[in-house]
Amino acid sequence: MTLPITPSFRLDGKRALITGASSGIGLGAAVALCDAGAEVVVAARRKAELDTLVQSLTDKGLKASALPLDVCDFSATQTAVESTGPFDILVNSAGLARHSSAVNTTVADYDAVTDLNVKAAYFLTQAVAKGLIAANKSGSLINISSQMAHVGGPERAVYCATKHAVEGFTKAMAIEWGPNNIRVNTICPTFVLTELSKVTFDDPKKRQWILDKIKLNRAADVEDIMGSVVFLASDAAAMITGTSLLVDGGWTAD
Fold first, then answer.
1. Core-most of 76, 101, 197, 223, by most CB within 10 Å?
2. Is 3 part of a structural domain of the chain?
3. Cβ-contact 88, 142 below 8 angstroms
């Protein structure tokens, strides 16, 4: 009997770009991809935090470098990707939430959230794909979306709209770039315990609403997302494109 060969989760020889890498899910993704053997370029606006992360990774003998970058500066982002790429892997983790009731949404908040969560994500994904196509290379492009891309929630109309949009352009890009062997997917976490979510979890009513929705009866930790990043980036997910990996503790099972 000839047994099938288990695809590798290793990423040796791969180069990855992670945005929003100075904290939270982006930082976790950087650690996970480095541990799997990839060389990572971590990008965010906060240079000091990036330098600290790179030092911590290189102290472990891992390959990492910092790229201070505001992904909402589209010209600078395109130039940076062109000059430092091509990248085999993209993890787009830069994101923003400004919660309010729908009737109180301001134009300023709407623009800020959509500019980062949709426009910047779109053109960053485009820039990395252009580099891969020009180099005739395959790749895995991962957008960090949200369970809120599949459901609605109070005080989250704008945020939900942006994450639904990310799901839409991810599917369309996957169709277009499939012939180039470029895979495009999203990871959709539930509420993750980070510095940014602390204000939500500090509100007992909101915390209980979250725990009532998550069937595993706990919020996610950054570590709960790290394995899914490695999986989608690796050959183990070679037949997965244009879809969402829900890491939501059962929130959307209803």
1. 197
2. no
3. no
Residues belonging to the active site: 159
State the residue for tokens 């169709």: 175
Largest CA distance in the chain: 65
How many structural domains are present in the chain? Answer: 1
Distance CA 197, CA 207 (A): 10
Residue reference for tokens 């959230």: 113
Q: Tens place of pLDDT for every residue, the chain, 254 residues?
A: 999 999 999 999 999 999 999 999 999 999 999 999 999 999 999 999 999 999 999 999 999 999 999 999 999 999 999 999 999 999 999 999 998 999 999 999 999 999 999 999 999 999 999 999 999 999 999 999 999 999 999 999 999 999 999 999 999 999 999 999 999 999 999 999 887 788 888 889 989 999 999 999 999 999 999 999 999 999 999 999 999 999 999 999 98
The answer to whether 188 touches 147, Cβ cutoff 8 Å, is yes
Which residues share a beta bridge with 189?
247
Question: Domain with 242 in it: what CATH number?
Answer: 3.40.50.720
Rounded to two decimals, what is the model's pTM?
0.95
* CA separation for the pair 11, 89 (Å, rounded): 10
Q: Which tokens go with 79?
A: 């130039």
Q: Which residue has the tokens 């945005």?
A: 19
C-alpha–C-alpha distance, residues 140 and 52, integer Å: 27
Domain assignment present for residue 223? The answer is: yes
Taking the C-alpha atoms of residue 235 and residue 230, their distance in angstroms, rounded to an integer, is 10
Please give the single-letter amino acid code of residue 89. Answer: I
